[in-house]
Amino acid sequence: MTNPMRIEVSRVASPDRLRDLLNLFGEVFDERDTYCRQQPDDAYLQSLLSGDAFVALGAWIEGDLAGALAAYELKKFEQARSEIYIYDLAVREAFRRRGVATALIDGIRKVARERDAWVVFVQADYVDEPAVALYSKLGQREDVLHFDIALDGEDRSG
After folding, report:
1. b/e per residue 12-22 (b: at least 16 CB within 10 A)
2. Is residue 158 part of a domain?
3. Quick one: DSSP state of residue 5?
4. Is 114 contained in some domain?
5. Can you spell out the DSSP letters for 6-70?
6. Within a domain: 131
7. In a domain, 144, yes or no
8. Residues 6+ apart with CB under 8 A from 75
């Protein structure tokens, strides 16, 4: 009898572990320039990890980093509550369809409950069918428009 797969989801507490997550995002999203080329120094990453707004979770299967989630707690002004925004969620191809993404979302739900947050939310591209299917299974869909507003007024879409 073989042991069942065990997914360990834990919060990332060190800059080195956060770099592992950044490298995973670069690999999975095929955006190594964005996530790997100019990573912040350890002091910046430690400041991010020790602050209240940022949460990073990693999912390990038998010692291998299988997936990662980065989120931000957004404190609201209209009521004394907060929301958790999943900024990035990625699972390495070899570990897909094994419950890793759901385990990571369950992990951020736990963090949200600990922080007494009101809701967890995430964006997905219409063309990312696996993500849309997962999020549709776990939550209520809202169709909204998203705009990136450049600081200098220049179009940065290309």
Report:
1. beebebbbbbb
2. no
3. P
4. yes
5. -EEEEE--SHHHHHHHHHHHHHHTT-HIIIIITPPPHHHHHHHHHSSSEEEEEEEETTEEEEEEE
6. yes
7. no
8. 82
Question: Which range of residues forms the domain containing residue 117?
Answer: 7-138
pLDDT score for 139: 81
Please count the residues of the chain. 158
Contact assessment for residue 38 and residue 31, using Cβ atoms and an 8 Å cutoff: no
Distance (Å, rounded) from C-alpha 49 to C-alpha 18? 9
Residue pLDDT, tens place only, 75-104: 999 999 999 999 999 999 999 999 999 999
Q: Is the pLDDT score of 1 beyond 50?
A: no
For the stretch 49-70, pLDDT in tens is 999 999 999 999 999 999 999 9
Average pLDDT of the residues in 11-27: 95
pTM of the complete model beyond 0.70: yes
Count how many domains the chain has: 1
**CB 69, CB 108: distance < 8 Å:** yes
